[in-house]
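ok so i was messing around last nite and threw this chain in just to see what happens. nothing serious, just curious
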Amino acid sequence: QVRLVESGGASVQVGGSLRLSCAASGVTISNYCMGWFRQAPGKAREAVATIERDGTTWYADSVKGRFTISRDNAENTLALQMNSLEPEDTDTYYCAARSGGYCGARLSKFFDYWGLGTQVTVSS
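result:
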């Protein structure tokens, strides 16, 4: 059984930092395209950052230079370091895995496994 469990969400002030973690079981994340998505109420879930099997990373334009995705193969965990947080980053953040190792189109419908999400709130 595949489980992805996010942690690390919190309320922070503008300019602050957070580190999200995703603990995976039932999958070896180094064999998957792994991603972080976010979603606000009433909006579509959007990709924030992904890392492919070969380590290639991708970031949404809105977070480039501020967020860093990383993977710990030994611990089978995924992380998202978020710096210089802005109110627009307020969302529920989800960890996701896509079979095959390569991300392709970073649309939520192509990802096979999801965590339940962790809330990030950025206030001014």
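not much to say yet. The two ends are 41 Å apart (CA to CA).
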